[in-house]
Amino acid sequence: MSYYWNFGDGTNANQTTPLIYHTYTAANVYNISLIVTEDDGLTANATMTMPVYTTVPTHDVGIAAVVLSSSVVWTGNPVTLNWTTITINVTAINEGQANETFDVSVYYNGSLLGKQTLSNMSPNTTQLLQFSWNAATIPYGYYNITATASTVVDETHTSDNTLSGGIVTVTYVGDISGPNGVPDLKVDIRDLSVVAKAFGTGPGLPGWNPICDIDHNGRVDIRDIALVAKAFGWSPSS
Fold first, then answer.
1. What is the mean pLDDT of residues 52-69?
2. CA angle, 112 as apex, 99 and 83 as ends, to 5°?
3. pTM for the full model?
4. Domain ranges within the chain, ordered by starting residue
5. 2-52: which CATH topology?
6. What is the DSSP letter of 115?
7. What is the tens place of the pLDDT at every residue in 185-200?
């Protein structure tokens, strides 16, 4: 059996053992090929691309940003509303000096929401990834949304490999506020007051509060107040 190597730098070698050593004299990306010939004349071949560096490159990937389309998901609603799904935009970054292939995973309170793979990402570049989370069957509560870039070979700076995008509240339609200005997992007089205060407003008008537009029709009207009133008194235990 013979092994014929082409190292992509103008040199080649033909030998009868599979293990070979080769030294490159310049940094570059080389196309390497191998042809294996059996004693009966049958052949097989393989190719690969090999980057060669004169200095050891740094390897450093991370998450630059996590942006949520909404901090509230309403489920179990009494009307057909498209508020059970949010979009999560994740910006991954390669801050190193070598092309990298790595996974970007998104979690809600540590449970995997989705994973995407970035292949051969160039140094000093960013890539925007979009994830969709349908929380229709998720229990009511508060969920921390985080994104994590998997550690690449020889990476030592990993403090930016995980980033939180913030808390998403999964609650019932009509729960739009609470003592701290965010939904508090119950529908009470505070919610009615907030939506009533925004009554008659729309985008760009004084007092406009988009979370009060419960039916998502571009204005706060009597239908939104009716939805809150219908859910009045709700809590996860009710």
1. 92
2. 110
3. 0.74
4. 2-52, 58-173, 174-238
5. Immunoglobulin-like (2.60.40)
6. E
7. 999 999 999 999 999 9
